[in-house]
Design a protein that fits this description.
CATH class: Alpha Beta
CATH superfamily: Flavodoxin domain
Structural class: alpha/beta
Helix content: 25-40%
Bound molecules: flavin mononucleotide
Length: about 180
């Protein structure tokens, strides 16, 4: 299976990427190939809502999404959404990646891709992830993605906190289980 990790933290060595690395280690051990994509450091502009794509055609934004990420999404079997929680929601740049599904929504939906969520927050409460998980589930439902699992990294405020947490093992096991 081809896995695409959509990483959305500006901290290249941060908490969400630490969990992603364990997920990737497990997935590779299970025989899968992994492409890592850093959406924060790419040139990905917002959907303008111009509808020139007609939901099935080229986007007017000639950026990294149109030039490379769209193709990577198309050719992957599983999308891993990797994120720090920002104000109890998805980071804006990763939300932008989803908004840009618009130019190939029908095609993408018909591909019945798999998906996982890997998230971290400083907050140690379950409710800190309410919006993050609700949106993820809704997108899986709408896009016909098959959810393969969620890592809900509570109390993962720094890389040290994260590396000491049980979520490292959970992330590895999720990758290995695919
Ligand atoms: C802009 C911003 C907003 C944040 N919002 C929240 C929040 O709503 N709840 C929370 O628990 N932590 C919040 N945090 C903390 C991060 O989620 C947390 O430090 C996380 O470990 C960062 O992950 P990273 O190292 O992968 O970037 C926020 C951090 C930033 C920079």
């Amino acid at each position: 299976m081809k896995i695409l990790t959509l990483k959305s933290s500006g901290n290249r060595n941060g908490s969400s990427n630490a969990l992603a690395a364990e997920f990737i280690r497990g997935a590779k051990e299970a025989g899968h190939s992994v492409t890592e994509y850093d959406v924060i450091h790419a040139d990905i502009r917002p959907c303008l809502g111009c509808n020139r794509c007609g939901m099935s055609g080229p986007c007017v934004q000639k950026d990294d999404y149109e030039k490379e990420l769209k193709g990577l999404i198309r050719s992957s079997d599983l999308l891993a959404f990797v994120m720090p929680v920002y104000y109890y929601n998805w980071p804006a740049q990763l939300k932008t990646v989803v908004d840009r599904f618009y130019s190939f929504t029908g095609e993408l939906t018909s591909m019945r891709k798999k998906a996982v969520l890997i998230s971290v927050a400083w907050d140690n409460s379950d409710s800190a992830f309410d919006v993050v998980t609700a949106y993820y589930r809704r997108i899986c439902q709408y896009m016909d993605f098959q959810n393969q699992g969620m890592i809900i990294g509570k109390g993962c405020g720094t890389p040290d906190m994260t590396k000491r947490s049980r979520y490292m093992k959970e992330a590895y096991q999720l990758g290995k289980s695919l």
